[in-house]
Amino acid sequence: MTLDKRLGQRFLPYGANYLAWSDMAELKEVIDHQVLFRYQTETESMASRLERQVSGRLGAAHALAVHNCTEALRLALISTRPSIGDPVYIPAVTFVAVAGAVLSCGLIPVLVDADDSLSLDRTLLPSDARRVVVAHMEGAVAALPEGVPYLIEDCAQSLGARFADGRSVGTAGYAGTFSFHHNKVLTSGEGGLVVTDDDEAWSTMRRYHDHGSARVPGHYPTWNQDAHYGENFVTSEQVAAVQCQQFRHLDELLAGLERMYTVAMTELPNRPDLEVRPRTKGDVKVSLRLCWESRELRDAAVAALTAEGIANWTLGKYLLPEHPVLTGRRSLYADGFPWNHAPEGPLALSRDGFARTRDLLDRTLCVPLSPELPEPEQVLAAKAVRRVLEAV
Ligand SMILES: Cc1ncc(COP(=O)(O)O)c(C=O)c1O
């Protein structure tokens, strides 16, 4: 029998989602109120409540809820008022949404190789870099470059993580972006947020996300003299309600991950061919990140864990230098926009053509932790992982 069946629990990839009718007070409130559009009400909407709670918790002056983190990234980028073809330095190891957000704003992604923690290596950045996206992947707090005017922290995978000085990730630079996609720390199926301390950036983002207008809640948009074109990224009340409900559980979730991480670290086998990649105190401990001596061993571990029903994943999918959109400069525009504004030659910063990073990714394996399990079951689960890893 697989571990899942023995425990009667799913081995959740990333966070638990706490969905239960008995816990859906905010959703009930929205339905009782009979308003699903956030700007239909002059009292505080559920979306505004979410933004107030998130900005308060993270210590940001402003938060804006949108449909997903990709929109949040687009808002952050476009609010910097760039010119077509401006470079944006992004991690070579991240989800393709970051490159997509850059390209769809008419900007050019420049891939920056990873450091030992698999985060963007800030030492590779040119001193005049104006726009940089750093991604805190898998709950891991990345080191940030200094002196970058538009530093965007992509926290899609790291809601709740903190820097060593206690600040929340997403609040150290120009803007921070978050995802509530189903495979994230908290989820509403899809969902996103952008936070910033910059009043002007927030007001620009708020206008752009609502057709370019500075709408007064409860009223039709007004097209002021400073209006510009925009899109519609306005979230819905029922989604915000689920996000508020999820957000209530953030501390409990983080504590559950910490607890299982501590348990798992004591249970891991002591093998000379297996290294556990270190995590900082402020990381959200969404997974154990294991690095094997060879790709063959890593693949054998994947097969063995999978056969036991233990969720796991590898990180090769995040290697953007091998993504067809980047290698082929793909675009839907007839003239190849915005690639037709890119300089000739490689758009990459790496000391070795990404060889070391590729090798590291080939040998890395992640095993998610299960915050919702009571401690005795976390111990059981960690022991099961240990048995499988020992036998590889
Ligand atoms: C690092 C990173 N950035 C951005 C995104 C995009 O988030 P969303 O799916 O909410 O648009 C993701 C989603 O997986 C991600 O992992």
Label the structural class.
Answer: alpha/beta
Our count of domains comes out at: 2
> Order of strands across the widest beta sheet?
1-7-6-5-4
How many beta strands in the DSSP annotation? 11
Q: Ions, cofactors, ligands: which are bound? A: pyridoxal-5'-phosphate
What string, H for helix and E for strand, traces the elements in order?
Answer: HHHEHEHEEEEEHHHEEHHEHEH
Q: In the CATH hierarchy, what is the superfamily of the largest domain? A: Type I PLP-dependent aspartate aminotransferase-like (Major domain)
Low-confidence stretches: 6-10
Relative helix content: 25-40%
CATH topology of the largest domain: the name is Aspartate Aminotransferase, domain 2
Average pLDDT works out at: 94
> Largest beta sheet, briefly?
5 strands, mixed
Radius of gyration: 22 Å
Strand content: 5-15%
Shape: globular
Instruction: Give the termini separation.
Output: 19 Å
Q: Any idea what the CATH architecture of the largest domain is?
A: 3-Layer(aba) Sandwich
CATH class of the largest domain: Alpha Beta
Question: How would you describe this structure to a colleague?
Answer:
The chain has two domains: 16-249, Aspartate Aminotransferase, domain 2, CATH 3.40.640; 250-318 and 354-391, Aspartate Aminotransferase, domain 1, CATH 3.90.1150. 32% of the residues lie in helices and 13% in strands. The protein contains twelve helices and eleven strands. The strands form three sheets. The chain has a five-stranded mixed sheet with strand order 1-7-6-5-4. The model is unreliable at 6-10 (pLDDT under 50). The structure holds pyridoxal-5'-phosphate. The site of pyridoxal-5'-phosphate has 15 residues, from helix 4 and helix 5. Pyridoxal-5'-phosphate (PLP) is lined by residues 68-70, 94-95, 97-98, 135, 137, 154, 156-157, 179, 181, 192.
